Amino acid sequence: MLSSLFTRLAGFTSSALGMDVQTGKLNGLRWHITSLWEEYGHIQQIGYTCSLCGQLPDAKLRRGVENLREKMGDLQVVCEERSGQLEADLEEDLEEDLFHREDDLAPSPEIRDGDVSHLPLPERPICKRPSDGDFSEQKRLKMSEANDVSYNNSESN
Questions:
Q1: 52 in any annotated domain
Q2: Band of pLDDT at residue 61, cut at 50, 70 and 90
Q3: pTM, whole model, 2 decimals?
């Protein structure tokens, strides 16, 4: 009955939320677990109300109890379906996570066996080494800048 569905709900919740799953899947998992806890709360309320109403000798209350028992039966079906769906989703998510982890660990087909000769070169070199002519020009510019600074300093004195 319902008690068998909810006897291990707390332990199941903590172990399910402690699993290493992707964020989007974790949100779906939380939704399922939250729904189960909501249904569990509804069932507890109905059960408590039934026990109180069953103790009173009123015909209207007895009809209310019968109505609540019908609702409990409906909730039982819903909870069983959600539990089954949650278990199926968990199994699917675990299989997908294991599959994706294996893909992440596999070497890229482009760089397999260390051969990168077939990969395209970048459009421009990462680091440009100055040619001798460039170096001479850079050196002349720095020297002329230094001379200009020293000349300007001597004029200001």
A1: yes
A2: confident
A3: 0.38
Tally of structural domains, the chain: 1
Structural domain that includes position 45 = 2-87
Cβ-in-10-Å burial (0-12, 13-18, 19+) of 70 comes to exposed
Q: Is residue 141 included in any domain, yes or no?
A: no
Write down the residue that tokens 């806890």 correspond to: 37
Instruction: Give kind and range of the element (H or E) at residue 97.
Output: helix 59-105
Amino acid at 85: Q
Q: In the prediction, which pLDDT does 125 show?
A: 44
The whole-angstrom separation of Cα 149 and Cα 20 is: 64
Return d(Cα 63, Cα 103) in angstroms, integer: 60
Running DSSP on this structure, what letter comes out for residue 127? S
Q: Which of 59, 106, 79 is nearest to 1 (CA)?
A: 79
